[in-house]
Design a protein that fits this description.
Elements (H helix, E strand, L loop, with lengths): L3 H28 L18 H20 L13 H24 L4 H4 L26 H14 L4 H6 L2 H8 L8 E5 L5 H9 L4 E6 L2 H10 L6 E5 L12 E7 L7 H14 E12 L9 H10 L5 H4 L4 H7 L3 E8 L2 E7 L5
Parallel strand pairs: 1-2, 1-4, 2-3, 4-5
Antiparallel strand pairs: 5-7, 6-7
Helix pairs in contact: 1-3, 1-5, 3-5, 5-9
Length: 350
């Protein structure tokens, strides 16, 4: 059980965090007011009010604290961030806002395809886009440095708290097991943000951060440098460079909504392949239509506001079916603010 001091520290830290990132969201909209095309909505489509979104964010933070208090995971390792880094990232983010707005207005989403950064020409075509209309897509050091900050602004300071919800099934699975002899693979690890929470809670667990972007893997290396037992792998989710049944836990955070349907199925099959019998698969991604009906309009608007070419298909797709078709068994689904966590087990001995 957490202490009273930790409770106060968490409450103060999260209040400051939400205020910091929401303030930048509002400022960004003043710098470049969003100009969005009209989106045809089915009759009766729900659309959340600001009060609904804030209430859901408060519920996420309440649950995050409860998980800490219940001992499922520790207080965030970087609850107090370096103010110099916070200010530098905010300045980078705000400088990039006009360029993002320009791309949105011009529907310019293929700059990194037309003028590919060196060494990226052979990456899959679906990946060589300016996702989110962001500068350089996922293909530069600049993008990797800014990504986590951009996501926190988008989610009003709730992105890390959402990621930590994926720790819950991991914590329950690892309880009582010989962690130092186990392996966790994080597919599409990006900057390694989720793995920092994994390693902070399980420093003896061997982990692998896998991603398609070399700059993002380098950022992951920096973020995970305080811990040993960290491996990096440059590869796609649909072609994992690991032996069958080699991983005890596989996690995947915010990837599937950015994959074409065919690649999603291939990625699910690959994750099931490398998972050991009795192993745990945890997928975290965006809500889908019907998960929270009052948010359906927001989900339909998202791929228009942010270049997400596969999102409109994702929100109506049977994601659970991809994993059951690959031989895994559902082990629970939980909504977490604008995301949801889906857990699966591979049949066989633990």
């Amino acid at each position: 059980m957490a202490t009273a001091v930790e409770r106060v520290a968490y409450a103060a830290g999260q209040a400051a965090r939400v205020g910091w990132y929401m303030g930048q969201y509002l400022l960004a909209n003043r710098i470049s007011p969003p100009e969005l095309p009209k989106v045809d909505m089915p009759e009766g489509t729900g659309f959340p009010k600001t009060a609904d979104i804030l209430a859901d964010l408060r519920e996420l933070l309440r649950r995050d604290w409860q998980n800490i208090d219940d001992g499922l995971y520790r207080l965030p390792h970087d609850l107090v961030r370096d103010p110099r880094r916070l200010l530098a990232d905010a300045a980078r983010f705000l400088r990039d806002v006009p360029e993002v707005a320009r791309r949105r207005k011009e529907q310019a989403n293929s700059e990194v395809f037309r003028e590919p950064p060196a060494g990226t020409e052979k990456l899959p075509r679906y990946y060589r886009q300016n996702f989110h209309y962001q500068t350089d897509g996922y293909l530069s050091d600049r993008s990797a440095r800014l990504y986590d900050h951009q996501v926190e602004v988008l989610f009003g300071g709730g992105a890390d708290a959402m990621r930590r919800q994926a720790l819950v099934p991991v914590a329950r699975y690892l309880r009582g097991k010989p962690v130092r002899r186990m392996r966790l693979l994080d597919v599409a690890s990006g900057t390694g943000r989720f793995l920092t929470f994994v390693k902070d809670n399980y420093p003896k667990l061997e982990v692998t951060a896998l991603d398609l972007s070399q700059p993002y893997l380098q950022e992951a290396r920096r973020n995970l440098s305080p811990w040993s037992g960290v491996n990096l792998a440059l590869a796609p989710a649909e072609g994992l460079p690991f032996a069958d049944a080699s991983q005890d836990v596989v996690t995947c955070i915010y990837l599937f909504h950015e994959l074409p349907a065919k690649v999603r199925a291939q990625a699910a099959a690959e994750m099931a392949r490398v998972l050991k019998p009795g192993g745990l698969m945890v997928l975290m991604d965006s809500l889908q239509l019907g998960d929270k009906p009052q948010f359906d309009g927001l989900l339909r608007l998202f791929p228009v506001a942010f270049h997400e070419p596969y999102y409109a298909h994702y929100i109506g797709a049977d994601i659970q079916g991809l994993f059951t078709d690959a031989g895994l068994e559902p082990d629970g689904t939980v909504n977490a603010f604008l995301s949801k966590v889906m857990a699966f087990r591979k049949p066989g001995a633990t």
